[in-house]
């Protein structure tokens, strides 16, 4: 019998704001489904299905499907996850492992959901605060909010994707023995040779990703 895995993440592969992180997460879950029955708690969005099975992974979308965004956040999902735990998980504890993915704003599931939780974080927000919210909120996020929640979670086991993120977490009090680095995969097959590749007449650059100020697309272009 497969073990049961619960993942908590701010948005899923079908969200209108999905990006590289969501593609990576779904790819990881597709590998884990070989050994686990997987349920994902995530945020709702307009016209979404509340429950949907995607590639053998059960997604449950919480929060309002109406317009309640601030930027790209559905803020209600954080309270909805707590409510879902209280109503459906608290007295059952029927998951063998829980993974909380943090993208700027944490769910803080380990503080109320038990010791089985592993934190998954690709990178800290840090300077990105100043590209996403007004200056006053950026200062609060950078100086107080992020350091505070990292301190609260510092005893947890962590999955991340780079040595630089590991070093950042260690600086904020995490034990490096509890931090495991995983490799990021790709969906398309790399070319084996450039000999037959036809290039554009003029020098061209392809940037893959969301175009937002925090992504620094203009800096990528300037660098080249």
Descriptive overview:
- The chain is an alpha/beta fold and 224 residues long.
- Helices cover 31% and strands 20% of the residues.
- A hairpin with a 2-residue loop joins strand 5 (69-70) and strand 6 (73-74).
- The model has no long low-confidence stretch (mean pLDDT 89).
Could you give a quick summary of the protein structure above?
By secondary structure, the chain is α/β, with parallel strands linked by helices. It contains 7 helices and 10 strands. It has an 8-stranded mixed beta sheet.
List the SSEs and their pairings.
Elements lengths: L2 E6 L11 H13 L3 E8 L7 E4 L2 E6 L6 E2 L2 E2 L1 H14 L7 E5 L7 H5 L3 E4 L8 H4 L2 H18 L4 E4 L2 H9 L7 E3 L35 H7 L1
Order of helices and strands: EHEEEEEHEHEHHEHEH
Question: Roughly how much helix do the residues carry, as a percent range?
Answer: 25-40%
C-alpha-based Rg, rounded: 19 Å
Which spans have pLDDT < 50 for at least 5 consecutive residues? none
Cross-sheet strand order for the largest sheet: 3-4-2-1-7-8-9-10
Shape: globular
């Amino acid at each position: 019998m497969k073990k049961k895995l619960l993942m908590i993440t701010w948005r899923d592969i079908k969200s209108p704001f999905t990006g590289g992180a969501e593609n990576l997460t779904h790819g990881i879950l597709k590998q884990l489904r070989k050994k686990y029955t997987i349920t994902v708690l995530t945020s709702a969005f307009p016209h979404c299905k509340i429950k949907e099975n995607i590639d053998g992974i059960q997604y449950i979308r919480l929060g309002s499907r109406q317009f309640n965004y601030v930027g790209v956040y559905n803020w209600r999902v954080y309270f909805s996850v707590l409510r879902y735990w209280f109503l459906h998980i608290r007295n059952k504890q029927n998951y063998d492992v829980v993974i909380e993915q943090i993208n700027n704003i944490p769910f803080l599931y380990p503080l109320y959901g038990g010791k089985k939780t592993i934190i998954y974080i690709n990178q800290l927000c840090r300077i990105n605060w100043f590209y996403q919210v007004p200056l006053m909120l950026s200062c609060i996020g950078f100086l107080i909010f992020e350091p505070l929640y990292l301190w609260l979670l510092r005893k947890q086991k962590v999955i991340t994707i780079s040595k630089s993120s590991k070093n950042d977490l260690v600086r904020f009090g995490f034990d490096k023995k509890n931090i495991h680095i995983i490799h990021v995969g790709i969906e398309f097959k790399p070319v084996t040779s450039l000999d037959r590749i036809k290039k554009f007449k003029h020098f061209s650059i392809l940037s893959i990703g969301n175009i937002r100020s925090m992504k620094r697309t203009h800096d990528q272009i300037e660098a080249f």
